[in-house]
Write a structure and sequence with these properties.
This protein is an alpha+beta fold and about 290 residues long. It is about 30% helix and about 20% strand. The chain contains nine helices and ten strands. The strands form two sheets. A six-stranded antiparallel beta sheet has the order 1-8-5-10-3-2. Strands 4-9-6-7 form a four-stranded antiparallel beta sheet, with no helix packed on it. α4 crosses α7.
Length: about 290
């Protein structure tokens, strides 16, 4: 995630009497009105008429999804809406133990854009590493075989579509961006949170949050968000996407889209890259 943050926000949204520099500062601090961070903001808006029409269609569909959500459309969700959170938090130390082992191979892990080239819009360095455990259309068998307790925990999360260890290096900043699809929610399980904790933080819309080891943070990543690790340590979360709770028939349609997602060219490409990286890391040898 290395493209400049302001590209995700329309300049016209800033007050006429506020400089662009001051507006960017207010944006990063989360001090603007909530709608300044809504999901229509994109890092690289479509430049062609067809692309713009497709984005307009996506905006419309995502607005419908939001209106069919029984939990409303907040940037951040209360954990009380998800009864399985207690089980996940109760088992976090077994996941941390497996993370400690795979962190020995951190330098060999791929950067996020090595798996999904679209992440190159917001990152060009190698300071955001990934260790994929599960993803729609991906075979992560060699990685997941090394984390059996983590895989048991993942089985407790209904509608899970993606899971990996997300590893941020000291000093890493992930600029403003939004997720690809409002039909999923994002879960971060804090596993390794360096001190001072307030210097390791995420802005989700106009809210600033910090991670806690063993605690879950659930949010809608299609709201504009931004991440900082201004510490000297590594920050690691178990990064999970799961199907957003929706009323029928949107729940059925969303589930169908999730099942068709592996046919998308960018996911087929990511599947091949992930398999190649696993072979490179483990030499085709199982756990």
């Amino acid at each position: 995630m290395s493209a400049p943050a302001p590209a995700s926000l329309p300049v016209a949204a800033s007050p006429a009497d506020t400089s662009a520099t001051e507006y960017k500062k207010q944006h990063a601090l989360g001090s603007l009105p909530l709608l300044a961070y809504d999901r229509t903001h994109r890092i690289k808006p479509a430049a062609t008429p067809l692309g713009q029409k497709l984005e307009a269609l996506q905006d419309w569909v995502e607005d419908v999804i939001a209106r069919f959500s029984p939990l409303g459309d907040p940037p951040v969700y209360s954990n009380k809406h998800f009864p399985w959170v207690d089980d996940v938090e109760a088992d976090w130390q077994s996941v941390r133990a497996e993370l400690d082992q795979v962190m020995k191979f951190r330098d060999a892990m791929p950067s996020f854009q090595d798996i999904m080239k679209e992440v190159g819009d917001i990152q060009t360095d190698d300071n955001w590493k990934t260790f994929f455990l599960k993803a729609v259309g991906m075979d992560c068998g060699e990685n997941s075989a090394r984390c059996p307790e983590t895989m048991k925990l993942l089985d407790k999360i209904p509608g899970l579509t993606t899971a990996f260890f997300s590893i941020l290096s000291p000093g890493k900043h992930i600029p403003s961006h939004r997720g690809a699809w409002a039909g999923v929610l994002r879960l971060h399980v804090g596993l390794l949170v360096p001190e001072p904790r307030e210097q390791c933080r995420i802005r989700i819309a106009n809210q600033i949050h910090t991670w806690q080891e063993g605690k879950c943070l659930i949010f809608d990543d299609t709201w504009n968000h931004e991440v900082w690790n201004d510490t000297d340590g590594y920050r690691v979360v178990l990064f999970i996407d799961f199907e957003r709770p929706l009323k029928w028939p949107l729940s059925w349609l969303n589930h169908l889209i999730m099942n068709l997602a592996p046919l998308a060219p960018f996911l087929r490409e990511a599947k091949g890259k992930q398999k190649a990286w696993e072979k490179k890391m483990w030499g085709g040898k199982g756990a």
